[in-house]
Amino acid sequence: MMEMLAVQVEAPGGITSLVVRSVEDLTPRPDEVKIELIASSINPADVKIRTGAVVPLRGAYPFTLGYDLAGTVVETGAEVTDLAPGTQVLAMSAVALTGVGTWSERVCLPRTSVARLPANVDPLPLARLPLAGLTAYQAVQRAKPGPGTAVLVCGAAGSVGRLAVELLLDRGARVHGLVRRPEQVDQLPTHELFTPHVGQPPTRSVDVVIDAAGADFSPALVDGGLYICLVPDRAPARDVLARRSQRRTVLVTEESGADLEELVELLGAAVLTLETTSIFPMKNIHAAHREFEQDGQRNVVLIREDW
């Protein structure tokens, strides 16, 4: 039996609950792609699974963690004919739904979840993109903003929030970005259609709220406005919103290779930007998590080298 290395959480707990261990290697199903890891990253969602705040709907402990994946195709199922071995790809695995994590030497994912990378693109920096980018992209798709649409992004300095702001500006929306601290304003775009807010959102002035922070910012909405919640357990109550004919939708980020390919194109066109990151080998997973939590849960990339 072939084996590979993976980072798993044995039971809910702190950083020391993470272990690097040998697990059984994988064989792709007919519609799947087997990918060798180049790099992944740490997301707040990984911390929620590690601590037990979220338990994946499928599988059982020990779970392999990891949502993001930049890697190289090593094998495909019989139904996959358009990705040859050696192709570099990008993907997101929705661990909370599937129980399939990406912090392992090799990962099998559905072809529809996998994006082909252009030949001239370095995959390592893109390891921060999949979950944050797909969440921002799908939130903006749901908002359906047109030129002049007023949108408040809460948590605008976070990985998801920054990308949502850039996507909205590209569509001509008037964007308000809410952050907690004055120094976070420096992390936000400078644009004639962008207005930063520190601590306090505007009142009854926006058509859409995209909430990546997890609090009730519905007073910012105009009557009849749309509230898009990216933190499912922190969504405002529907009956409260209904008093002003406001609507609520809770976004659960979906795996999508097609959406990822669009995001990579937007990066290439400089519509989107990615922050600089700290890089750790997988064997230093404890140090990587400490850095992630000390840095406000952002900007840590894990690479396969030196397991």
UniProtKB/TrEMBL annotation:
<dbReference type="InterPro" id="IPR036291">
    <property type="entry name" value="NAD(P)-bd_dom_sf"/>
</dbReference>
<dbReference type="Pfam" id="PF13460">
    <property type="entry name" value="NAD_binding_10"/>
</dbReference>
<dbReference type="InterPro" id="IPR013154">
    <property type="entry name" value="ADH-like_N"/>
</dbReference>
<dbReference type="InterPro" id="IPR016040">
    <property type="entry name" value="NAD(P)-bd_dom"/>
</dbReference>
<feature type="domain" description="Enoyl reductase (ER)">
    <location>
        <begin position="13"/>
        <end position="302"/>
    </location>
</feature>
<dbReference type="InterPro" id="IPR011032">
    <property type="entry name" value="GroES-like_sf"/>
</dbReference>
<dbReference type="InterPro" id="IPR020843">
    <property type="entry name" value="ER"/>
</dbReference>
<dbReference type="Pfam" id="PF13602">
    <property type="entry name" value="ADH_zinc_N_2"/>
</dbReference>
<keyword id="KW-0560">Oxidoreductase</keyword>
<dbReference type="Pfam" id="PF08240">
    <property type="entry name" value="ADH_N"/>
</dbReference>
<protein>
    <submittedName>
        <fullName>Oxidoreductase</fullName>
        <ecNumber>1.6.5.5</ecNumber>
    </submittedName>
</protein>
<dbReference type="GO" id="GO:0003960">
    <property type="term" value="F:quinone reductase (NADPH) activity"/>
</dbReference>
<dbReference type="GO" id="GO:0070402">
    <property type="term" value="F:NADPH binding"/>
</dbReference>
<keyword id="KW-0521">NADP</keyword>
